[in-house]
Amino acid sequence: MKKDFLTLRDLCADELNAILKRASEFKAGKDANACPLIGKSIGLLFEKASTRTRISFQVGIYQLGAQAIYLNPNEIQIGRGETIEDTAKVLSRYLHGIIIRTFGHKIIEDFAKNAAIPVINGLTDLHHPCQALADLMTINEKKGRLKGVHMVYVGDGNNVANSLIEAASVTGMHLFIACPEGYEPDSRIYKKAVSEGAYVKILRKPEEAVKDADVLYTDVWVSMGQEEGAEKKKKAFRAYQINKKLLSLASPDAIVMHCLPAHRGEEITDDVIDSPKSVVFDQAENRLHAQKALLETLIR
Ligand code: CP
Ligand code: NVA
């Protein structure tokens, strides 16, 4: 049976650990010339902009021996009203897997229900699981463990935050989210994680949240497709910037993460994102390795 990756929860702890191990092997150059996906074709259907996700998948697919086919929604019939269901059924006859970046999470769920091939979530308004996969790989590399690592996410309760909650749930990482009232992560995702015993807490004051943090994480205050009311939102987030002062309150060996792209001077300052504590470019590189391991696991 085909397996999708729509949210981080689609992987159990054992599957996640196996993927992270395989990702490290790829990064170390093991099987550099192996082509486990030779002869396969994998689609990339992106309804929003992307630098990291699109390019890391295209490069990774090539390195695994398959071909990547970029599908601009305005150049295929979906842009002229062909249904998601019909598109999923047709593309399943040609492709061996597909990565989709879209708006509502239901769109990718509907696609997956109608597709006979693995569907990978390259970001929806609700989840960004491929990012979380690379984040976990990065934390493991830098801290040598995931369970009990004290991560503080300062910022909007968005798709990245939601996937980090699920990541905390699957790995036992401790996650503190500091956000203004009204900008919390998805309540269903949060409640499910907490009901399962995940260590996830929502706080208001970033200064309190970052105390003893091993990892400080942030993302843009205004996500793609959510530009309406951006100015009001930016005001609400003024006190939620990762800057030198906030960083000084974290553990002395804390690392700083950001999924990128960053809005420098808003959610993070230049002196922090460019400091030796910042691992943002390793994090971006790990998208490639982690997604190769994911593709090798899901696509047969
Ligand atoms: N972090 C991330 O998903 O970046 P892109 O939007 O550039 O793909
Ligand atoms: N939360 C951001 C992540 C971008 C990679 C967005 O959805 O725009």
SSE layout and pairing:
Layout: H1 13-27, E1 41-46, H2 52-63, E2 67-71, H3 84-92, E3 97-101, H4 105-114, E4 119-121, H5 129-143, E5 150-154, H6 159-171, E6 174-178, H7 187-195, E7 200-203, H8 206-209, E8 215-218, H9 230-236, H10 244-247, E9 255-258, H11 270-273, H12 280-298
Parallel strand pairs: 1-2, 1-3, 3-4, 5-6, 5-8, 6-7, 8-9
Helix pairs in contact: 1-5, 1-12, 2-12, 3-4, 5-6, 5-12, 6-7
The chain binds phosphoric acid mono(formamide)ester (CP) and norvaline (NVA).
So what's the overall shape?
A: globular
Tally of strands:
9
Q: Give me the CATH superfamily of the largest domain.
A: Aspartate/ornithine carbamoyltransferase
Percentage of residues in DSSP E strands:
5-15%
Helix content: 40-55%
Low-confidence stretches: none
Tell me the radius of gyration: 19 Å
What do the pLDDT scores average to?
98
Q: How many H/I helical runs? A: 12
Task: Write down the domain tally.
Answer: 2
Distance between the termini: 10 Å
Question: What does this protein look like?
Answer:
The protein contains twelve helices and nine strands. With 300 residues, it is α/β, with parallel strands linked by helices. The chain folds into two domains: 136 residues, Aspartate/ornithine carbamoyltransferase (Rossmann fold, 3-Layer(aba) Sandwich); 152 residues, Aspartate/ornithine carbamoyltransferase (Rossmann fold, 3-Layer(aba) Sandwich), CATH 3.40.50.1370. The strands form two sheets. A five-stranded parallel beta sheet has the order 7-6-5-8-9. The protein has a four-stranded parallel beta sheet with strand order 2-1-3-4, sandwiched between helices. The longest helix is centred in the last third of the chain and has 19 residues. Norvaline binds next to helix 6. The site of phosphoric acid mono(formamide)ester (CP) has 9 residues, from helix 2.
